[in-house]
Amino acid sequence: MMRTLRISRLAATVVAASLLGGSIVTGLAQAEPGMVFGACPDRAVTADRGVRCAVVSVPMNYAEPNGPKIELTVSRMAASGERAGVLFANPGGPGADALDYWARRSEVFPHDLGAHYDLVAVQPRGLRWATPLDCAAGTKTEEGERVSLGGGDRDAIKKACDAARPGYLDTITTENTARDLDAVRAALGLERISYLGTSYGTYLGAVYAALFPERVDRMILDSNVNPDWVWTEEFAQQQVAGKQRLDDLFAWIGEHDGEYHLGDTALQVYRNWVRLAADQGGGWYANLTPPPASVADLPGALPEPLAEIARDGYNGSVEQLGKLQNLLRTLVSGGVSAQVPLLGATAVATYTRTFWPIFARAMADVAVDPANVQRLRAIEGATSTDPTGRFVFAAVTCNENAVPGRPELLGAAVGTIASGGDAMDARADLVRSGMACGAWKPVTKPVRITGAGLRTPPLVLQSRHDALTKYEGGPAMAKALNGALITVDGGDHGTFGRGNAAVDGAVLTYLRTGQVTITQADQAPLPAS
To answer: How far is Cα 295 from Cα 279, in angstroms, rounded to an integer?
Structure first.
């Protein structure tokens, strides 16, 4: 998330008006009866894993069930043994492809999962293979200004989107995506489903549980969005969580200086990291992730929008806001990290401890030979997404953002950076300013999250130092849904299916019995080198 959640991370990933998403519909979701599974779209799923796909037609707007339809692709891996149920999944984002979720992870998830459950994934609306959101992002308006989702003039964006499919943009919300899940459930002829959601997928699952509690059997929510932070505050808190995990990463590398030769303290490793990032051209962006030291000690000049405020003060002019808006989009989307291998790889490494030895070796390679970036490129590409994912991310988070922006924090953020304060706090204030969505106002209120009516309390998994969904999201989600929380040490984003016997065993026990027998678990072991 925001880097998703992604921005899976700035993301991260995070951030009222009338309900355009169809919450006035109280009946069952509607879909064409029956689904015929066959070959999946070209390159949509991992080959030779037994995945079959089907297409289902659902209302574009659930408030108009007889109105225009959209088509969603659904993947399924049939249980190899005696079936105990059907398990739906969503990997997060918003904007992450779902079709290949089960196949890509089939070798790391416990065998019993595929043996006893039909594994289903519904491609979220707006993404490729699910009536892609087409807003002519590569074209220009009549006035000659390029249209881009997120932070722009919503009237221009909506005009571009409506030219392709009138009204579709306003329907790209979590509530409608949850109703799509229920439409697929109905088309499959299922009375109830179980569900596994990671990152943003936890919020999607929680919305589904609030809308259709009687349709839920078991629900596992792993690495949770805080339902009270949707969305601006979620992404602001992501900055704090990201700094903590980066400090953990640098400390671990320092503990293994004999192998990697990058410094024997977190600060020494960090200084090497900044030097290498600057050599690759990502200097100032790297400065936004300080070590336990003063920002005043870091190299590099402020970019012009911030330098202007530091020099002349914040005046709130349209021109100044426009410059800051462009800068913020660069920050929260990863910006230059997409062009600088070290920064992109660092972002991935903070998500999961499994990458730490690989990342440290890649960083050591570059320290010896700056041109040797092959390992960094491989790590960076591990979480690459289709461009439609960025469109859906912006649409969901701006359509339903429930946390008003505070533009006055722009000046405070710049003052913090310029005076040598904690730059991650400043970055959080930039997010809280509301510039990520700019003039794009929400079109719906988020669904109130509640566990009332659920037959079985959800299982909530949350690691202590998660860099994308801060720890508080786990307890908050468990409280909202009356769920059972398992706190996992370390900071992996996504704790199930990482070779953690305690966590994997707890999930299987829960699926089988509905019971949660532990409240704590150690972090997943690192793979043998």
So the answer is: 19
